[in-house]
Amino acid sequence: MTSDQTGNVAPPPSATRLRARDTLAMVLGRDVVRARDDPDTAGSGPESAEGVLLPLGLRLFLLSFLMLFVELALIRWLGALVLYLSYFSNFVLLGSFLGIGIGFLRARSRVNLFPWAPVALALLIIFVRLFPVQVDRAQTQLLFFGAGKFHATGPPTWVTLPCVFLAVAAVMATIGEGVARTFVRFRPLDAYRLDIAGSIAGIAAFTLLAFLDAKPVVWAVIVALILLLLYGRRAGLLQVAAALAVVGILWSESVSSTDIWSPYYRISYAKAGDGYHIAANGIPHQDIVPVRKMGKTYSIPYMRAPGDPLNNVLIIGAGTGDDVANALHMGAKHIDAVEIDPELYQLGSHLNPDHPYQSPRVSVHINDGRAFLEQAHSKYDMILFALPDSLTLVAGQSSLRLESYLFTFEAVEAAKAHLNPGGLFAMYNYYRTTWLRDRLANTLDVAFGQAPCIDNPNGLTVLSVSVSPSATHCGTVWQRPANAIAPATDDHPFVYLDGNSIPGLYLVTLGLILLASILLVRPASGPYRRMTGYADLFFMGAAFMLLETKNIVQFALLFGTTWLVNALVMAGVLVAVLAAVEVSRHVVVRRPALLYAALLAALVAAWAVPPESLLTLSPLPRFAVAVVIAFAPIFVANMVFAQRFRTTGDSGTAFGANLLGAILGGVLEYLSLIAGYRWLLVVVALLYGLAFITGRGHLRAVSREAPSGSPMAEAAR
């Protein structure tokens, strides 16, 4: 039985900043070759042969691996220890994006910050360990949805969030600068290959460790070893001490607790009588209770369908097995138990006193609930959504939750399609707010064409509805209020958002992120007035960030919100980026305006085929069509960017403009709270339209370039 949870999928790294940092060297190509061949330049910086143990190619691969690995580790670790990041899940991502961008802008600075990377990382870890922000269990009030209050340890939001944002930016700037200083020593195409290969390897390694239940100390050991290997004989006492401090602190954290690090949560559990209390990321999450002590509360759905034979039952959100044990107790002959988190399932297998997962009548599926509904072909006498949602958001957010696509109108329709005649669908939770309860009841009303039964025992709300009204024995029928909120949809899956708006708290926070980004980019990129000549790159950065977000969301709907799906999508984005760079290096587009036309056509095609329309296809054709629709705009957009960027005369200022645009794009993601994800394509098209208009002068200049002696021709060689 789940109570409250923070079910954030750790977001993948932004391909926007990968694409932007990689193409930064495109315009530096004139300096890249000189930096590699000029003995005066080649002997400077941490990349010089003296003291370096690794060949430059392996060094760049490891640096790119390290950057992605550390970014993912910070997202996971900070989210598990700082409660506020449950409300601002992309906060660490934006701080990382900004830091890496600044690091690349400092690629040729006189002062090298890369040796300070372990120190910055150690200071961040010490701060969070000294001032963790978690639910204060000493208080009777734990965590309330909506406008409710909760008591938390640690500093207040206005102190913790800025500190985390700036500290993450500092850590990633030091590592980003190390990547950049090695990056510019290669010919651009060679650098791209090594950089993207290392980035993909970083994603793959962290994904593998997540599924192996590796604790943070394992991440720390990997990071420390790579850092010391990269420093080689240049590693001083400070670097060694800081790296050992990172490992030591996280080792102490790991051995002092029984926490389990699943792909989604930091799970802790404690004995409670003959059961267990389970918390996720420090928030009360589930209770394992013997079925004999569950009482009648969780048996209400069975009471509402007394004639149901229960030959086949589906439970989504099976967790540690209480609801499965109850279904077995009520006589279910077969149960499909769906749980997204493998470690919660393992805990239930070992700790649940009724051992429901050992029953031959139970089939376990470790999968996203919505994905299972789309993939399964079975019919059920009863389908239960057994507290699978996370109720910790102040309001909806642009980052997807684990259950974002499980409570939409389309999801309920999919569940209805799996019911036998007379079958019953039920969902239950401690909704705590009347408007949320009414919204979900309204969703059932619209999908089934009848108002559901509603029960409220001990604060738990149970909503039950049947395909056949005569098969349901209702105690109380839900009455639609005059202000009932419309159902959430696959395009606007923010079930916890009361209305289509951006909450004021988010607006203030996002405004501060923009302000901090503007102030921090200025010293590295140069005066703002010089950026006006690169307005088209600014708009490209914003557009591509939104395009990337739309694709991640699309694949989450089509294939599930699991960590593996997100990692595969991000790897696919990087491959598309590399393909575009490869093509742009060997193909001179004399009329770049044609690329804008091709991009517009790809965006129109993506708009014409809504992602939900692909759910009717079998998995293989669905994947093929989704890849074409999602990655065609990414490929062409990178062609547009690459053709433009390598003709710039001031690479630092140009990259700064693109970086600020990308950060704006990260903020513009929240427009989906108002208009939905599909309309992000319209915003993307408008931004690329602005890029076309503001960059017309550059387009004409490119079209007039001669094939020989031009930067494009030089790059093609």
From TrEMBL:
Any idea which UniProt keywords this protein has?
A: Membrane, Polyamine biosynthesis, Transmembrane, Transmembrane helix
Q: Which GO terms describe its biological process?
A: polyamine biosynthetic process
Q: Does the keyword Membrane apply?
A: yes
- UniProt keyword Transmembrane present: yes
Q: Which CDD domains match?
A: AdoMet_MTases
Listed transmembrane segments: 60-78, 84-105, 112-131, 158-180, 504-521, 533-549, 555-581, 593-610, 622-641, 653-671, 677-695
Task: Using the record, list the residue span of the signal peptide; answer none if the entry has no such feature.
Answer: none
Q: What is this protein called?
A: Spermidine synthase
